[in-house]
Specification:
11 strands, five-stranded antiparallel beta sheet, alpha+beta, 47% helix, 17 helices, 409 residues, globular
Length: 409
């Protein structure tokens, strides 16, 4: 799910974990920065530059913020990035897919969740790094280092371009994963002296589990649906792993240009790193046969995997069932009797499409609703059309195949 606030918000999950692996002491202060948190900033800047290969073109600006000010900022960001209609459409899509409960007030819950998570953030609009008052010194210092990496990124690519991306949830999530993944990875490089594998107890795998377990003491996160938990963790966990793989394969190259285009590339870095990257197929649906479109977007391989896991509760099956994803697009459609969702997925080959269609056949619709699943081909591509609709609704698919077009990768 696309984030309702900037991808550059540093969440407590990463900060609390990274404070556990703070293995390198502060270096001597280089000259330059004279603002708040002078010692921490001066120590972090040269290390981040060395680890990332990027240089600060201008000195950062840091300011303190109260928890109430942070909440006000997050609320304003949510309102600026998604209209109430867009938010309602997004919530409707995930409810119809069974990823969010019908009773959840998504806006209110997500605002509480982010307020709990944020220990500091970099705002690419104001170019200011804000530090939340009252945090423990160790957590605060880790947060500053992480957010300084975002400030450094923003001096080389426009991070606010991620916020303005509309109608392509999968690409936005992938870009967020690169941004947060690089900040997490380079921060670990700084803290371990560039020797992550041997300096972290238990290695990289244990690091992933530590991030997850560090969330258990956070009541809002603990109460969140699985889908929200996983979409919050994805940029840090899978993003850092993607950046690690990129750094090993393309030493000295920037992971920010070009950005990864899909969560498929994040989950399978080789699909980005190959000489001919595996790019997603972009789908245009056109108007449905009946009803009116309330909301339209895509899921991507990662959220397709979450959908399968939510429905079938088998991680291996979910991973296998989402593999071979090559693109998707859905529409939430207002019809007589309520709302329907029409979801078209395109696959690398017919066998993978058939496996996904078979798994969808095991998904049980809520009371008063039903799933209609069809395996077919469009423009020579294997596709699966899945529609969930009110049970009383009759007639053929809502999707008008004549209006479907593919932008080939």
């Amino acid at each position: 799910m696309r984030s309702f606030v900037s991808a550059e918000r540093h969440r407590r999950a990463a900060a609390s974990l990274l404070s556990m692996v703070l293995l390198v002491g502060c270096a001597a202060e280089p000259p330059g920065y004279e603002g708040p948190y002078r010692r921490q900033v001066r120590a972090a800047i040269p290390k981040l530059e060395e680890a990332s290969g990027l240089t600060f073109r201008r000195l950062p600006v840091l300011q303190d913020r109260t928890r109430d000010e942070v909440r006000g900022f997050l609320e304003a960001e949510m309102q600026a990035q998604m209209t109430p209609l867009q938010l309602a459409g997004t919530a409707a899509a995930y409810r119809l897919l069974g990823l969010l409960p019908d009773t959840l007030d998504l806006r209110a819950f997500y605002l509480d969740l982010l307020t709990e998570q944020v220990a500091g953030y970099y705002d690419p609009k104001t170019k200011v790094l804000y530090v939340v008052e009252g945090e423990a010194a160790e957590l605060r210092d880790v947060t500053i280092t992480h957010e300084l990496m975002h400030a450094l990124q923003d001096q080389h690519v426009r991070l606010d371009s991620i916020q303005t991306l509309q109608g392509d949830n999968d690409r936005m999530v992938a870009m967020q994963a690169v941004v947060e993944g690089q900040a997490t990875y380079e921060q670990l490089q700084v803290m371990t002296g560039g020797d992550i594998e041997s300096r972290l107890p238990g290695g990289w795998g244990a690091l992933r589990e530590t991030i997850r377990s560090s969330q258990e003491g956070m009541p809002q996160f603990a109460a969140a649906p699985m889908f929200l938990q996983e979409t919050l963790l994805f940029p840090y966990l899978s993003g850092a792993e993607f950046v690690r793989r990129f750094a090993a394969a393309r030493a000295g190259r920037s992971v920010l240009s070009p950005f990864a285009e899909s969560t498929e590339q994040i989950l399978h870095p080789e699909k980005f790193l190959d000489s001919i990257p595996d790019r997603p197929t972009r789908i245009r649906l056109g108007a449905p046969r009946r009803g009116s479109v309330v909301h339209e977007d895509n899921l991507g391989e990662f959220e397709t995997r979450l959908f399968l896991y939510q429905q079938l509760r088998d991680e291996a099956v979910a991973v296998r069932g989402a593999a071979g994803w090559d693109g998707d697009r859905y529409q939430v459609i207002a019809v007589d009797g309520g709302q329907a969702i029409s979801w078209l997925t395109v696959w690398d080959d017919l066998a993978e499409a058939a496996e996904f269609a078979s798994l969808l056949g095991r998904v049980v619709a809520p009371a008063g609703r039903r799933w209609v699943v069809e395996l077919t081909t469009l423009a020579g591509r294997p596709v699966v059309l899945a529609e969930q609709r009110p049970a009383a609704m009759t007639g053929g698919p809502l999707l008008d195949r004549a209006r479907v077009t593919f932008d080939a990768p």
